[in-house]
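User: What would this chain look like folded?
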Amino acid sequence: MNRDAFPDEALTAAIRIFYQPIVRLADMRTAHVEVLARVMTADGTLDGPQAVLEAMDGTERSMRLTSSIMQRALAEYDGLDFAAHDLGLAFNLPLDAMLHPELMGIIERVRRGSGLAVRNTSFELTERHPVHDLDAARVAICDLSAAGYGLALDDITPQMPNLAALMAMPIRAIKLDRSVVMGAQAPMQEFIRTVSARAASSGQEVIAEGIETGVIRARMRGLGVTHGQGFLFCPPLPAAALRDFLRAA
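Assistant: Here's the prediction, encoded as structure tokens.
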């Protein structure tokens, strides 16, 4: 995506917010929901997350777009009284945006203007660009954790740099990439089992993305995965449909 062809203002206006439940595999109950940003194109179709991720091409722009998405979701959170369900929201936060010098102040200002409690606010740390300064990442992660925010490492694969070092930080959850979850080969399953065992020893949750069948759910449980997300449980929903989903649960 070209920055000049799709400036921040146009991108913000084109973004639509959806929510997808993350469930506990043991009892199939909703634990919290992930906030998903999609882009409405000129012909009325929705682009996937790649359009938004490509626009987050620097620390400053990543932080502006993250803040805008948070504000949109929190307005719906208050307008539909999701606080009555004690609903937790997970926002995507690129790791380079996490290094923004005013990260904590921006997040706190946005959240405090809503009814979302800090204990119900979490961030899925997405590594679009490799983090080379692990010390700076550790400081930001520790600051967010100390303030009460939950943190998850997103899109985990065997190729993720610095995975062991990042898992050793105060992270609440490890989120396996869909490609890992769908992989039926023994080496991929051994990776899931190893990550799950390491996470369990640290009291961390393991979330599997892209669960579409009961067979995959059963396989993930057998490998030690604690939570799941995918069409087997619920597709991404607009806010009003999420309200109905929660009422029916």
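The radius of gyration is 17 Å. If you want, I can go into more detail on any region.
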